[in-house]
Structure formats: C-alpha cells, structure tokens
Amino acid sequence: MRKITYREALREALREEMRRDPTVFVLGEDVGKYWGGAFKVTDGLAEEFGDERVRDTPISESAIIGTAVGAAITGMRPVAEIMFGDLTALAMDQIANQAAKIRYMFGGQAKCPLVIRTPFGAGVNIASHHSQSLEAWFMHVPGLYVAVPSTPYDAKGLLKAAIRGDNPVFFCEHKLLYPIQGEVPEEDYTISFGRADVKREGSDATIIATLYMVHNALNAADELAKEGVSVEVVDPRTLTPLDKKTIVESVKKTGRLIIVTEDCKTAGVSAEIAALVAEEAIDYLDAPIKRVAEPDTPIPFSSTLEQYVIPNEKAIIKAIKEII
Amino acid sequence: MTTDLPKEKLVSMLTKMLEIRYFEEKVFDLYTQNVVPGTIHLYAGEEAVAVGVCSALKKDDYITSTHRGHGHCIAKGADLKRTMAEILGKKTGYCKGKGGSMHIADFSIGMLGATAVVGAGLPIAVGAGLSVKLRKSDHVVACFFGEGASNQGTFHEGINMASIWKLPVIFVCENNLYAMGTRQSMAMAIENIADRAVAYGIPGITVDGNDVLAVYEATCKAVERARKGDGPTLIECKTYRYRGHSRVDSAKYRPKEEVAEWLAKDPVKRFRERLLRTNALTETQIQQIENEVSLEIEEAVKFALESPFPEPEEALEDVYA
C-alpha cells in the first residue's frame, strides 16, 4: 500500500470531503493560499476550492468558532482550524457553551456538524503557550466528540467521519505526527467514532496510549519484547465516545494496565481511563494501574527541561517493569 | 415612509407589541405565584425594538437572541403556547423543558436560539450570515444583544468579521442603560454604542428604541443594504426595561425620576396613540385587538399550566444527534 504523511492524510480527507459536499468549507488563521495553514495541512486547498471555501480569518479565535457554529446550525459543514491547541482557551465559550450545548439546550432542534482541528503536543521548544495537551478539557464537555488520531490512516478516516457526522467534533492533532508516514489506501473509507484500535497484540500487559504517545508505547513494546515481555498497545482513537469495551477486554486478557498520555497527570485522560478500569475490571487486575503522563507543570522551553516532562520510552518501560 | 404602511402591517406590529407586553406581565404574575422555575429576564418596556426589527424581516430570515429573549421569539412569530410552556419547564415547550426562559429557539422560523452568555450570539449570527453568503441565498440575520455585550470581545471580533466579509447581518444593540446594575457610564466612556461601528467601517445608527416605526425604518435600510451584499449595519436602540435585571432584582439603582421619564415614553402607549392620532385605527378596533391578545395569552398560560413536565430520563436525550 502507498505511504503518505499524517499531514497529507488530513489534507486528502479535507480535499475529498470538499469535493464530495459543497457545504464543507475550511476557515482559520492563515489557512488560505498565502500560507496553507501554520502546519501546512490546508496547503493547496485554496487553489482548488477558492478563497470563499478556504477562508482566511482575522486573529479572532472566539469568532472563528462562533462563526463556524452559526454556519453549522444553518446548513453548512465548517472545519475550523485553531492554529495551536493552547489557543482554544480563547474560544472556550464558543466550544464548550455554544457548539456543545446548542442541540441539547434547544431540545434537539439544532444540528451542529462542526469540526474543530487543532494541534497539541510538546517537543519542539515552543514553550508554555504552544505545547500543551488539553484533550481532557474537551472530554469533560458533554455534546462534543473528541478524536485523537495517532497514524495517517486513522487521521484520514476519522477526519472524514467527523466531517460527515452531525455533531461537533474536537479533532486533536499532534505537531510531531505531521511528518510521520504510514499506509493509507487510495479508496474512500471512514473510521467510526468509539472504536479503539489494537496497535499491537500482547499478553503480559496493556498500554492504553493516545496521539504521539502511541508511537512511544510501540517502541517501548519492541524493547520489552526483546526481554520476553509481551505488551499489548491499545489506541482509543476517540476519547468521546470512548471504546470502553476494547479497553476492558484487553485489561481482562493481560491483567496489567499502563496508561500513557501526554497531558498533565492530574484529572487527565489517564485518570478517566484508570477510573473506568477500576469500576469495570478491578478484579482482573494483577497489579496496580500505572499512569505515565506529564507532571503537573506548564511545558518549559529549554530542551533539557522539556524532554524531562514528556513521557518517553524509558519511563514507559520503567513503569511496566514495576508491575510485571 | 411609515405613514404609508398598510393597515395590516400596523395591526400586526401593534398586536406583536401587545403580545409581548401581556405575555411578560403574565410571566411576572406566574413568577410571583412560584410557578416559574429559576430566573426570568423580562422584555417589557423594550417591545418596540424586537417588533420594529422583526417587522422588517422576512419570515425565514434569521435572528439570534439573548437571556432577555421572550420578546424576540414573539416578535419573530413563535408560538405563544410553546414559549410559555418552555418558561414553565414543560415537555410541550419549544425545547422540551431543557432550555427554559433563557434558551428558547424555533428553528422553523429562523429563530436560532437565545444564548445566555452575554455577547456569545454575535459570532453565531456572523456564522449564519456566512452560511447565507456561501449558500447564495438572500436571507439576512438580525442579531440582538445589549449594550453590556458591546464590551465583550465577541462584539468586536464578530462585527469586524461580518464587515470584512460583507455579511448580511444587522447588529441590533438594545441599549437599556444598565448591564445588570452597572450603568453604561461606569462601563464605557462613550454615550452611543453606534459610535463603535466606525472602528469596523460600517454604518452605525442610533434610534429611539421606544419608537417602533423608527426602529422599523432603520432596520429596513439595514436589511436592504444587507440583501444587496453591502454588508452589516449596527443599529443602537435606546430603550429601557421596566423590571429589574432578573427575578431577584428590584432595580433600586435606578433613580425614580429616570424610571418616570422612561415610563412616559412607553413604546406600546406611544404607538397606540400614534395609530389613533393618524386615524390608522379607531379606539374600538384597538380595544378589540387588546381583547384578542389577552385571550390568546390566557390560552397560552392555560396550555402551559396543563402541560406535563418531562419524564426525568428525558434529561439524557438530545446530547448528540
């Protein structure tokens, strides 16, 4: 199968959906022909679809999302890009109070088919305002779906499903994933929300990991395999809805759970997954649940500091060895 | 221009104003009887704004509304029974009891709902305007908000966006002088919100918001400009709310003289007198309309009171499509 990058996979999803459905359009800061998106995801789309459908906006995050909400409830399918995940804080009312609640508050009258794409993640020395992983914020808002693709294949299939669905989707990307390559078929496909993917099968321990951490988890699993430890790596792919069944089944099989996420540990994604397993499969656990996540600090600038806070293979291997 | 308005139009405007006034008086009565759960933000006193604006719109044009939204719904043509039922938290209400007084919507008449976050409706109205433009339809969007909202970032972000993209949005600022208890002069150094339009390169007009025909005329011009593709207009309507901000507020921060001055400019009374003075309607005809509206409100109250509450488990429905 051909290989393309995560960035190209996202761009293909946008291009194919925009060709398929004239109500799909893209808006955001510098997404148009002069820049093509800060991470080049929308590069080339304005040339094909024009400035009206690939719409550069002023630096107004709140109005970008609010405008997308207004367009979504009146028949369009906007895909809004927020340049960095950290900046979603500027648009939080429109995301959490408007987009997420507009259907419920009005008794099901409205559909809000809106996708908000944004990159999270640390590792490129851009410090506290451009490096956070805030997925958990959005898991905590009923009415939103949250996608966390880790591969080009998942990125394309989930983005297409997000655009075609009738609910607001908070679509988390990761800066370090944009250049990675992976197999993506030429033909049309979508990935249903709420279906985890077992990225590697194993029998001694389960790692639940998201976004870039899936790759660190797979590397750690490779290392441990050399020592005869068989690790299963499960990627939820969407946090809302969360595929509880696949997670619980894997834990029942291996009896050991390590959760690896890049967000802060306290009240993070890993806390929710740990609570789920404690509620539904505690009797199957042979050891305490381990969480490998960022410490509760802002993301620092200097490499020595930044690399210290990002969960790496070594930390994952150490955590697994503690419970094996 | 307004003197040439057909009689049916004038009757419709008076009827809507009376509906709002009587409806709000009834909501207040029901609240004193402890039948209305939660809080209420009554529109009484501001009727000329909602009716003046909505009378200049087509039935399927869009509006966005605020926490003080009953008047906008009624002016746009919402059903009084379902509106009242929603305020009482009933299953038969517009939002099946999930929204209440601050979140009424009727998408079937372009009423895109009331948001209770001050200023949040502006970008949503801009998005509806963008949708109209992208779909190449000729609808317009009227966006209601108060003068307090004009200090929110969304006001500036939203109007700027509508301006650069020449979107068909009419920004209607209901300046009732107070943001809760904060007098306008405490929150901004300008007298007219319309002056803020200059910063976005669009027309800004201040009108007597207690004169329904003045509001109507200003809106007609803004609608014409919007439908031609020339972009948005900011209309500031100076008006006054009769009650406090919400149910717990007796509005003691407002000087008695000020209240008396505004009561003398009552929008319903003024329009009534004007219709008599210009021989548009007779006293008998007006009384007949008043009686009909009273009956209509009684029926709405009866419907709402007799309607069932939603089943508890319905709380779990409508989160996702």
Describe the fold and architecture.
The complex is a heterodimer of chains A (324) and B (321). The model of chain A has no long low-confidence stretch (mean pLDDT 98). Chain A is globular. Chain A contains twelve helices and 14 strands. Chain A is of the alpha/beta class and 324 residues long. Chain A has two domains: 3-183, Rossmann fold (3-Layer(aba) Sandwich), CATH 3.40.50; 197-323, Rossmann fold (3-Layer(aba) Sandwich). Chain A has a seven-stranded mixed beta sheet, sandwiched between helices. In chain A, strands 9-11-10-13-14 form a five-stranded mixed beta sheet, sandwiched between helices. Chain A has helices spanning 6-20, 45-53, 61-72, 92-99, 102-105, 135-139, 152-164, 212-226, 244-254, 269-281, 303-309, 313-323; strands at residues 3-5, 24-28, 54-56, 77-81, 115-120, 145-147, 169-174, 181-183, 197-200, 205-209, 231-235, 238-240, 257-264, 290-294. With 321 residues, chain B is an alpha/beta fold. Chain B has one domain (2-304): Thiamin diphosphate (ThDP)-binding fold, Pyr/PP domains (Rossmann fold, 3-Layer(aba) Sandwich), CATH 3.40.50.970. Chain B contains eleven helices and eight strands. The longest helix of chain B has 26 residues, at 7-32. The model of chain B has no long low-confidence stretch (mean pLDDT 96). Classes of the chains: A alpha/beta (324), B alpha/beta (321). Chains A and B meet through helix 3, helix 4 and helix 5 of A and helix 5 and helix 6 of B.
CATH architecture of the largest domain in chain A: 3-Layer(aba) Sandwich
Which class of the largest domain in chain A in CATH terms?
A: Alpha Beta
Q: Which sequence of SSEs, written as H and E, runs from N to C of chain B?
A: HHEHHEHEHEEEHEHEHHH
Rg measurement of chain A, Å: 19 Å
Largest sheet strand order of chain B = 2-1-3-4-8-7
CATH fold-level name of chain B: Rossmann fold
Order of helices and strands of chain A: EHEHEHEHHEHEHEEEEHEEHEHEHH
Report the biggest beta sheet of chain A as strand number plus sense, adding barrel if it closes.
7 strands, mixed
Shape of chain A: globular
C-alpha Rg of chain B, in Å? 19 Å
How would a crystallographer describe the biggest sheet of chain B? 6 strands, parallel
Number of helices of chain A: 12
Please tally the β strands of chain A and state the result: 14
Q: How much of the residues of chain B is beta strand, in percent?
A: 5-15%
